[in-house]
Specification:
CATH topology of the largest domain: Rossmann fold
Bound molecules: S-adenosylmethionine
Number of strands: 6
Structural class: alpha/beta
Shape: globular
Distance between the termini: 29 Å
Number of helices: 5
CATH architecture of the largest domain: 3-Layer(aba) Sandwich
Order of helices and strands: HEHEHEHEHEE
Low-confidence stretches: none
Strand content: 25-35%
Strand order of the largest sheet: 3-4-6-5
CATH superfamily of the largest domain: Vaccinia Virus protein VP39
Helix content: 25-40%
C-alpha cells in the first residue's frame, strides 16, 4: 500500500500472494484504504506467476519479500521483467545475520545467502546491500 500511495496517477502495483486467507485480508485492506484500483493482487505461487509475466509486463521496481528459500530463483525470473533503469529490491537479505554465516543455520538464511552470492555473479549490474533492519539488497543495471 505504501508503494501504491507513492505512485503517479497512472502507476500500478502488481503483488503476488500464494495463500488465499492472506490474499483475502490484503484485498480487504486495499479496498478499505481506497487503493484497490491501484493494486492488482495475483493469487498463486510467485515463481510460477513471475514466469508467466515474462514478455508481457515490465516493471520499474520489483520488491522481493517472501519465501526466502527461493530468493535466488525470484531474482533470476525478475531480471527479464525489469525495465531499463529499474530497480530490484530484495528484503531481509541478511536474514537476522544468518546469511552472513559461512554456513547459515536456517533455510531462510541459506536462501538469503544464495541471493547475495548470486548478485555477486551478475556482471553489468550495480548492487548494494543496505544495512537497514535485516538488510535490503538493491540491484540496477549499469
Ligand atoms: C514477509 S510477507 C510480505 C510482506 C509485504 N511485503 C508487506 O510489507 O506487507 C511474505 C508474504 O509472502 C507470501 N508467500 C510465501 N510464499 C509465497 C510464494 N511461494 N508465492 C507467493 N507468496 C508467498 C506469504 O504468505 C506472506 O504473505
Amino acid at each position: 500500500m505504501a508503494f501504491a500511495q507513492s505512485l503517479p496517477e497512472n502507476g500500478k502495483v502488481i503483488t503476488i500472494e500464494k495463500f488465499k486467507n492472506f490474499a483475502d485480508i490484503a484485498r480487504r485492506n486495499f479496498k478499505r484504504n481506497k487503493l484497490d484500483e491501484k493494486i492488482d493482487l495475483l493469487e498463486g505461487d510467485a515463481f510460477e506467476i513471475l514466469g508467466k509475466l515474462k514478455g508481457r509486463e515490465q516493471f520499474d521496481f520489483i520488491f522481493i519479500d517472501g519465501n526466502k528459500e527461493k530468493y535466488r530463483h525470484y531474482m533470476e525470473v525478475s531480471i527479464p521483467l525489469l525495465s531499463p533503469g529499474g530497480i530490484i529490491a530484495v528484503d531481509d537479505c541478511f536474514f537476522h545475520g544468518d546469511a552472513l554465516n559461512v554456513s547459515p543455520i536456517t533455510e531462510k538464511g541459506k536462501g538469503s545467502k544464495e541471493a547475495l552470492n548470486f548478485s555477486a555473479t551478475l556482471s553489468g549490474w550495480i548492487r548494494i546491500a543496505l544495512p537497514i533492519s535485516n538488510g535490503i539488497l538493491l540491484l540496477t543495471r549499469e
